[in-house]
Design goal:
This protein is mostly helical. The protein has one domain. It has four helices and four strands. The strands form two sheets. A two-stranded antiparallel ribbon has the order 1-2. The chain has a two-stranded antiparallel sheet with strand order 3-4. Bound molecules: zinc ion (2 copies). One zinc ion (ZN) binds next to helix 3.
C-alpha cells in the first residue's frame, strides 16, 4: 500500500514478490495464489486498501469500485485463461498423436505377421 504512494511499486500480500506494474502484480496473483486456501489480497488502488480473502470478492470489488482498473484485471485473467487453454489443447494433441501412432503400429505389425 505505502509502496504505491511512495514510488510506483506493487507488492504481493502473500510473498515477497514486488513489481512496478499493476498488470504484472495481477498476473502474479492469478498464477501463484489464486487457489491458495490462505489467499489474501489488498486493493492497491489509490486511497482504497481494502483487503479480501477471496479472489472472487476482490474481482467484484474492483469491478464496482474501480471500473478504470477492472479492465486490466479482466485482460490478465483472459490472457492466463487463454494460456491454460492452449496448454490443454497441446496436451490433448499429444495424446491423440500417441494414440494414432499406436493404432498405426498395431495395424502395421498385424499386416506383417500375416502370411
Ligand atoms: Zn505472491
Ligand atoms: Zn479498492
Amino acid at each position: 500500500m505505502e509502496n504505491y504512494e511512495n514510488g510506483n511499486t506493487f507488492q504481493c500480500d502473500m510473498c515477497l514478490f514486488k513489481c512496478i506494474s499493476y498488470y504484472r502484480l495481477m498476473q502474479h496473483y492469478i498464477r501463484n495464489h489464486k487457489q491458495d486456501p490462505y489467499f489474501r489480497i489488498t486493493c492497491v488502488q489509490p486511497g482504497c486498501g481494502a483487503t479480501f480473502k477471496k479472489w472472487k470478492s476482490f474481482r467484484q470489488h474492483l469491478f464496482r469500485k474501480h471500473p478504470t482498473a477492472s479492465p486490466t484485471l479482466n485482460e490478465v485473467t483472459q490472457q492466463i485463461e487463454d494460456e491454460n487453454q492452449l496448454t490443454r489443447t497441446k496436451k490433448n494433441y499429444r495424446k491423440l498423436f500417441k494414440k494414432t501412432i499406436k493404432k498405426l503400429l498395431r495395424k502395421l505389425l498385424k499386416s506383417i505377421e500375416k502370411p
